[in-house]
Amino acid sequence: MSENVIVLGTGTGVRVNEREFSALVLRDACRCAKCVNVGTDQRLYDISDLPRHVTITYATCVGETLRVVFAPEGHEGEIPWRRLLARTEPRPKAALWCGDDRPHFARQTAEALEDPAVLKAWLHDFMRAGVAFATDVPCDDGEVARFGERFAFVRGTNYGRVFDVRAVANHDHLAYSDAGLLPHTDNPYRDPVPGVQLLHCLQAAAVGGETVLVDGFAAAEALRRENPEAFALLTNHSVLFRYHDSHCDIQARQALIACDDTGALRRVIYNNRAIQPLDLPDNICDAYLAAYRRFAVMLKDPQWRFGTILKPGDLMMFDNERLLHGRSAYDGAQYARHLQGCYVDRDAIESTARI
Ligand code: OGA
Ligand code: ZN
């Protein structure tokens, strides 16, 4: 490929595959042993150590590496030019889904997942679909955290390292009742919100308790197509979420939909129980509520819904910044439904999948 690398006139920059990179961009991309620690691949300098104005006195291309001499430093730089050409996206592209048009939802036994290759494929499927299932996970107390710690780190919260989801008397949280829960993302009142959630079924309900999943990214993209103004309102304004009981009062402002700098979806947050009365500027409130309502109606549309009944030993891991999860009401009086859950961070999952 080195024939595609054209060294422009001294001073200006270097052209690689029709793209032109300035002297400063190239200087910043230098990976020579003076700029980057060889053992750790970490940078040894700060941007403020570079001169404000950089020029090129000499440039050539040797295979995959541009060798560039920069003035005024006289620095002899080494720049792997391929790294300049494309934006690096740390995570695989999400495969958006609706109820009956879905990518592969991975399902493996806990034992099979002890094989690193099986685990890697499972994590990749998780990153694409936003959900993956494990079966035959021993129905032991705290097993959900031990499972998560195979590939990530558990993030404890006020609900504990592991939380129990079951109907209890005098509950201070609707999750700990036998009421149905509309599809939602967990803990929007937390900053940062938990990235990934694991739910492990220890005991199923005799009646009810169906698990429902919705791909919030697919619904948000549909809203963007159908009603760009509503989409913009939900991305441009944040709303207050709160959870409080006798031990805590946790609050955070979040936008319901967040995009990255390219406009790609980054996060969807939706929780009808924890959202607080609107406190946006007066001239925005009505339009915002109309947009929020439209999104809520879309999320309830059966076309997005995937339903499943978790059986004892089933474990569901899902992206809490993308998928909404809910459950139908169940009979809490009969032998008790019991799930255990924990939160882990997405970066650890992606790292495990990468190595
Ligand atoms: C929750 C929750 C799901 C369930 O506790 O936040 O969503 O199936 N529970 O009980
Ligand atoms: Zn939940």
How would the blueprint of this fold be written?
Blueprint (H helix, E strand, L loop, with lengths): L4 E3 L5 E4 L2 E4 H6 L26 E8 L2 E7 L3 E6 L1 H4 L20 E4 L6 H14 L1 E5 L7 H6 L5 E2 L7 E3 L15 E4 L11 E8 L7 E5 H11 L1 H9 L1 E7 L4 E7 L1 E3 L5 E4 L13 H19 L4 E4 L6 E5 L3 E5 L10 E7 L1 H9 L1
Parallel strand pairs: 7-8
Antiparallel strand pairs: 1-2, 2-3, 4-5, 5-6, 8-19, 9-21, 10-21, 11-20, 12-19, 12-21, 13-18, 13-20, 14-15, 16-17
The structure holds N-oxalylglycine and zinc ion.
The site of N-oxalylglycine has 8 residues, from strand 20.
Offer a concise description of the structure.
This protein has 355 residues and is an alpha+beta fold.
CATH topology call of the largest domain: Double-stranded beta-helix
| SSE sequence, one letter per element | EEEHEEEHEHEHEEEEEHHEEEEHEEEEH
CATH superfamily of the largest domain: Clavaminate synthase-like
**Strand runs, count:** 21
Task: Kindly estimate the percentage of residues that lie in beta strands according to DSSP.
Answer: 25-35%
Structural class of the secondary elements? alpha+beta
How far the N terminus sits from the C terminus, by CA atoms, comes to: 27 Å
Biggest sheet architecture = 7 strands, mixed
Total count of helical runs of at least 4 residues: 8
Could you name the ranges where pLDDT drops below 50 across 5 or more consecutive residues?
none
Question: On the 0-100 scale, what is the average pLDDT?
Answer: 95
CATH architecture of the largest domain: 4-Layer Sandwich
Name the bound molecules. N-oxalylglycine, zinc ion
Radius of gyration (CA) equals: 25 Å
Q: What's the helical proportion of residues?
A: 10-25%
Rough outline = elongated
Query: How many domains?
Result: 2
CATH class of the largest domain: Alpha Beta
